[in-house]
Amino acid sequence: MTRDEIEALLTFAGTYDSREVGEAMVTAWLAAAVHAQWTNDEAIDAVIAHYAANNDWIRPGHITQTIRGSRRRFWQE
Question: Are 38 and 1 in contact (CB under 8 A)?
């Protein structure tokens, strides 16, 4: 994912939880996204899935877990 995509993702998450997005947050989330090889579509889907079932603030680990679960299910089919 790109820095702009991460910033947009965090802004999108903020529509659910009113977070204020700052440079440090974008940098940290980008590092997690690159490390775990998120795609933009997967990350957006993970945010939607998280807030459809949760009231807790989403963190990078939540997105990684959701994406890994989706990928596992895809390869098992």
Answer: yes
Residues in the chain: 77
In the three-class reduction of DSSP (H, G, I as helix; E, B as strand; rest coil), residue 28 is classed as helix
Bin 45: left if φ > 0, else alpha if -120 < ψ < 50, else beta: alpha
Provide the 10 A C-beta neighbour count for residue 1.
19
Q: What single-letter DSSP state applies at residue 22?
A: -
The domain locations on the chain are 3-75
∠ CA(13), CA(16), CA(61), 5° rounding? 45
Question: 24 is written with which tokens?
Answer: 């440090």
pTM (2 decimals)? 0.92
Q: Report pLDDT digits (tens) over 8-44.
A: 999 999 999 999 999 999 999 999 999 999 999 999 9
User: How far is 29 from 11, CA to CA, in rounded Å?
Assistant: 12
